[in-house]
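Tokens for chain A. Residues wanted.
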């Protein structure tokens, strides 16, 4: 089965693959002088944060802090050593009791894809095992090209959290285990955690990437992250009207589309990063069997 994604969605996956990274190892380690200076430049916010002209509201609660897109870029580039992004996201959420610059620090990048209304008609019939198998095969098959380009191979080990769709909140979430080796005992493991909040005109994304050993911490925070973002009245999924534009892809494509997101800090450079130099001329076969139809068409 082929899962069709819009060009804008695939470009966002590229951006995430380029800039997301996480620091790991021991918790609350002493920051270097440079990182201490960077920490002092960050402006953490708590409470209610309005995004996208008020169509999305973030309520950090007492467990998270919000960083603006500019401060998030400082963390990603100056703190975690990623290349500068060509387009800023919507900011980042970080734990209230942990600096993102600490060795065990992590953050959840926020973004939005205005790819119209995505029908959830296939929610109860999606074969997630089939999607997983397709992604494993395609990622492994593309390792020849990865290694030819000078990158380590990438292997999808399985679900760290089986995809789940909440019909009442219209949120789908899942997590994947990735490594540079098919045997995770010989290489570090990375965990990619995805939260997708469906709205009337698109999808609000929360993306977390962590070391495998940090999965318990991420999973503990995930239920709270599911509740931090909400669409305002008129922009909610249930506010959809029959005349609204409907996306050309489905929930299954959202899950398959996360295949290219990897943790750069852990050395898991995404295959899609290879094609950035080619200005997306090469079509990436990395999701759901094939990305043979990347287009912005809506129906």
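Reply:
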């Amino acid at each position: 089965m082929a899962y069709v994604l819009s060009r804008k969605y695939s470009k966002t996956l590229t951006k995430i693959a380029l800039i997301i990274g996480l620091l790991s190892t021991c918790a609350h380690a002493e920051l270097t002088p440079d990182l201490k200076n960077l920490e002092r430049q960050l402006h953490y916010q708590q409470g209610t944060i309005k995004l996208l002209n008020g169509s999305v509201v973030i309520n950090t609660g007492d467990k998270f802090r919000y960083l603006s897109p500019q401060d998030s870029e400082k963390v990603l580039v100056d703190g975690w050593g990623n290349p500068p992004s060509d387009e800023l996201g919507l900011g980042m959420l970080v734990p209230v009791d942990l600096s993102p610059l600490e060795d065990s620090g992590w953050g959840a990048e926020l973004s939005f894809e205005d790819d119209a209304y995505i029908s959830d008609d296939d929610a109860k019939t999606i074969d997630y095992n089939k999607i997983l198998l397709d992604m494993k095969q395609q990622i492994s098959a593309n390792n020849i090209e990865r290694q030819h380009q000078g990158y380590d191979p990438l292997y999808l080990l399985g679900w760290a959290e089986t995809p789940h769709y909440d019909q009442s909140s219209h949120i789908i979430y899942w997590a994947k285990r990735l490594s540079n080796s098919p045997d995770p005992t010989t290489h570090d493991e990375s965990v990619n955690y995805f939260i997708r909040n469906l709205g009337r005109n698109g999808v609000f994304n929360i993306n977390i990437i962590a070391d495998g050993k940090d999965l318990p911490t991420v999973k503990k925070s995930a239920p709270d992250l599911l509740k931090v973002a909400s669409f305002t009245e008129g922009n909610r999924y249930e506010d959809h009207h029959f005349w609204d534009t409907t996306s050309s892809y489905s929930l299954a494509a959202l899950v398959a589309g996360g295949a290219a997101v990897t943790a750069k800090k852990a050395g898991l450079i995404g295959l899609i990063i290879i094609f950035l130099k080619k200005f997306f001329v090469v079509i990436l076969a990395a999701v759901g069997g094939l990305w043979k139809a990347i287009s912005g068409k809506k129906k």
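The chain has one domain: 7-278. The longest strand covers residues 155-166.
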